[in-house]
Amino acid sequence: MPTCTALIVAAGRGSRFGGPLPKQYALLNGQPVLRRTVLAYRATPGIDAIRVVIAAGDEAHYEAATRGLELPHPVPGGVSRQQSVLKGLEALSGDAPDFVAVHDAARPFVRTEDIAACLAAAAAKGIDGAVLGVPLADTVKKTGSEGAIVETVPRVNLWRAQTPQIFRFAPLLAAHRAAASLAEADATALTDDAAVAERAGLKVVMVAGSDENLKITTAEDVARASAMETRTAFGFDVHGFGPGNAVMLCGVAIPHTQTLAGHSDADVALHALTDAVLGAIGAGDIGKHFPPSDPQWRGVSSDRFLRHAVDLLGARGGRILHLDLTLVCEAPRIGPHREAMISSIARIAAVSPDRVSVKATTTEGLGFTGRREGIAAQAVATVEIPRS
Ligand code: MG
Known about the structure:
It contains 13 helices and 18 strands. By secondary structure, it is α/β, with parallel strands linked by helices. Helix 3 (81-92) packs across helix 5 (169-179) and helix 9 packs parallel to helix 11. The relative contact order is 0.13.
């Protein structure tokens, strides 16, 4: 599989935005714009890593916006967008990916399927890059002095370019290095990465996206996108005991006289939580995303299942309000591990521990849990997502 790193450019100052914060750090439904953009990339299959370019002095804003996401250090940007992208590319060049997806932090509504389509187009034979965009629907006028129309420009084959703009890494880096030595006026004319690539003779194609992939420019854009609704959904899972000496619950290994059997690490608690979060966004169940028949999930740590569900929620502009878990078993005892379980869930779901609850009960010796044949877990996720 070729590798692809998302390079998210968040170094702009956004003079049209106003407000106390640069727009990429403004809150969209309680979530910084940059965070939502990062989560869209985290939820896209084929994106292996994410690196953000930020302006000097924005370190604290960046830290707050990406808390818990465990991203690598941000790259300090330059004075222009083009310089910022070049700095980002240079920072990636030591361990260069095959492809790089350059994306504006202020486009948080990008759909994961559009990113994937753009990556597939860039990876086609004989192509160097692909740009997400929308064919022009409006009639285009060119004006002269005093706003007088001098021409109606045929809109056939005209597009509005968005991001991502995804390229083979090495030729894009070479194109940006070449553009860096241009005179300022010539450099200013290159308003996106595709323009830099075109100048270097690279073959770049357009991929049809959607108008949803709006670039946040004004405070009204944020307000318009901020109506939220609350949803609650349920998850349930059971795993049976097998021979072993520890069980994995909530990502915490707990010594026991048996283990839980199953594909992955059989973390029944994280599986129930994953299904609850997926349920809240109507995204199917854990088996749809991570089929038990697929050998790549054998023995894997279940934290990635929950993280994926939370990323899908984040990519839709949602966030977890609360996670409530009930474990049903006679043994092991949960109480001594409750705090560790809460911290573990909070870390995986990137929420504060006061938004996580872990409870336990027995079934008074009744049923399969009472006979100590396995552990059941029930979870309820309460989330907030943009009103559809
Ligand atoms: Mg399971």
